[in-house]
Amino acid sequence: MNTLTLILEIFQKRTNSFIRFLMVGLVNTAAGLSIMLLLMNAAGFSYRISTFFGNSAGAFLSFYLNRSFTFQSNASSKKSGIRFIAAILVCYLFSFSVSHLLTTQYNQFFSSLPINGKNAAILIGTGIYSISNYFVQKLYVFK
């Protein structure tokens, strides 16, 4: 057993799955953004192509790391892959809807803050997405 494997095993025993989930989110975001920026700026691909491939790579990495590292799942790759895609879509629609509703219903409240409603919606939506996605992946996708 190499040193990195030992460190990861100790880390997994001492952290909860939500912390690992957030760490995986940081890793796949960094990887996806790096791919987007490289494709667009170094390879000359369009914004749409670059973001499609960057987001796809980030999602694939997220699936792999969450399956093996975060939740240590033995569920079928095919079954959990389909559930993973469905979970991402449902969590996105849920978070978008709730954050949009909150920021439009409480627009007056948000106008008194040093942040505009659209930025508030993005921040609220990201929080809702992250939390709901964690629970859906833990209780449904990788169960």
Automatic annotation (TrEMBL):
Keywords: Membrane, Transmembrane, Transmembrane helix. It is found in: Membrane. Residues 20-142 form the GtrA/DPMS transmembrane domain. The chain crosses the membrane at residues 21-39, 45-64, 84-103, 115-136. InterPro entries: GtrA_CellWall_Glycosyl (IPR051401), GtrA_DPMS_TM (IPR007267). GO terms for cellular component: plasma membrane. GO terms for biological process: polysaccharide biosynthetic process. It is a multi-pass membrane protein. Belongs to the GtrA family. This is GtrA family protein.
